[in-house]
Task: structure prediction
Amino acid sequence: MVSAPFLVSAPGKVILFGEHAAVYGKPAIAAAVSLRSYLLTTKHATEFSDVVTLEFPDVKLQYSWKIHSLPWNVVPKWSMDTVRPPSELNTVLMDALEQSLVAVLNPLQRSAALAFLYLYLCLCRPDMPGMTFSVRSTLPIGAGLGSSASVSVCVAAALCLLSGEVSPPETKGDDDSDFNATNYASIELIDAWAFLGERCMHGNPSGIDNAVASHGGAVMFQRMTKGNPNVRESMRNFPPLKLLLIDSRQPRRTAVQVANVATLLQNYPLVTEPILNGIQALTTEAYKLLLMPKEKCDDVWEERLRELVRVNHGMLVALGVSHPKLEAIRMAADELEIGETKLTGAGGGGCAITLVKRDVEESRILELKARLEGHGFEVFETSLGGFGAGCLLPTKSDAAEWEEWEEKLFSLHHLLGLGDREDIQKTVGVGSIDGWAFW
Result:
């Protein structure tokens, strides 16, 4: 059991291959990105010992609840056991939580608060001290990058640590490739609870977003039909790859894009079915590439992966789910020979990804960023693969300068006062400071 304060973190994701074909039971591959959410857990002062607070300034959410006023009497017994939770939400608890959310009117804030309270009641006890859970993110919110799943994994990890359901990550090998059964069991449990958080927010999610945010690396996912269990294969040793993530800032609705493809399939089945089958074959080929040992991931390997990115985008264009802004992004990257670009997610707007060539000059990347930002797009330099959920615990040190740094790092007000994504990354970010450990 871990005591506050401490930090947890989980990554966002991009769909690499298989968009839209996945709707029809074909595989898709998603990979973690280095953009992440962070959650700081701190104890309240004694006078607020009966209050739990959730703060998420990136969506303008700040709300507190009296712990003993929450509906503990309807918490199902299974939620207090150290077993993997069921995949279905408890409807009695969901109905009871409505009374605790009457003052939260914004739909985005309400869904985040509902997920938090559901997991809090399932994993904590009414006699636990009052605490504040503060969320900050370097991920764009609502851009199809799995930001809600990233936050759900953070909440699940923090509450599992507090309740003693999981322990902090155990040390693995220097190359992070050694399998650790305890860590794996812990992250599987965190993933299962995070999926329930996702269900609170989205109703019937696929589970791929929380799987990537929990495990990191990449995941191959296939939704099965006729009652068969879904296929989910984790690729935790997925080699990190340099990526440009470009937000077109063009609003889009996933449901509209899915419906448009369904209409195309209905009207032209002999044309559309081969495209979907081609995406399936391409995704299978990519999966084989991504399972290759790291020592074989050379320039030829990367070139083959980029070719698949280019072909996948062309197939999605044929399905009618691109957008002029996404094509403008692709053309700009092609002109500067940065790498290969495809839309990611539902399309019709949203984000594009460019898999960057290994030897491309930084000056050309800066030129592309300037050009795209000049047209109102937002550009992120990130990497594919990498770590999943992790935690950062305070360390004991007699060094005054270390204690001062630690006090700032685990200060609630300091975290909430950080300005942009760069400030968050610099202050608490994975890869920016030492001490992070991963399950």
About this structure: The longest helix spans residues 181-202. The longest strand covers residues 28-43.
